[in-house]
């Protein structure tokens, strides 16, 4: 087809990236309950810093969300540059 007055030879008109997912935020109360259960069972062998654990778990959620949503779109755009 034509775009902007220039004839397009080959290539793509669009790249659609149908990738994605969703994961909810860390529930603070559920996390504290989980840590208390682990501590009662003697797992970990250390006293948990609740704030530090919350930040770690939240960072993992952000990382997984980036891998599910952002990275595939960036990869598709880089592939699209080749066409």
Task: Explain how this protein is built.
With 83 residues, the protein is mainly α. It has two helices and two strands. It has a two-stranded antiparallel ribbon. Strand 1 and strand 2 form a beta hairpin. The mean pLDDT is 83.
Descriptive key words:
single chain, 83 residues, mainly alpha, two-stranded antiparallel ribbon, 2 helices, 2 strands, 53% helix, rod-shaped
Write the topology of this structure.
Layout: E1 2-3, E2 6-7, H1 28-40, H2 50-80
SSE sequence, one letter per element: EEHH
Please tally the helical runs, counting DSSP H or I stretches of 4 or more residues.
2
- Give unreliable regions as ranges: none
- Helix-strand category: mainly alpha
Rg to the nearest angstrom? 22 Å
Mean pLDDT: 83
> Per DSSP, what share of the residues sits in E-state strands of 2 or more residues?
under 5%
What topology, given as strand order, has the largest sheet? 1-2
Short recap of the structure:
The protein has 83 residues and is mainly alpha-helical. Helices cover 53% and strands 5% of the residues. It has a two-stranded antiparallel sheet with strand order 1-2.
């Amino acid at each position: 087809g034509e775009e902007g007055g220039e004839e397009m030879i080959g290539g793509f008109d669009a790249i659609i990236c149908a990738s994605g997912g969703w994961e909810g935020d860390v529930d603070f109360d559920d996390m504290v309950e989980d840590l208390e259960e682990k501590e009662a069972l003697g797992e970990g062998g250390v006293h948990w810093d609740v704030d530090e654990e919350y930040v770690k778990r939240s960072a993992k959620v952000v990382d997984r969300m980036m891998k599910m949503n952002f990275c595939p779109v960036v990869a598709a755009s880089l592939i699209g540059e080749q066409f």
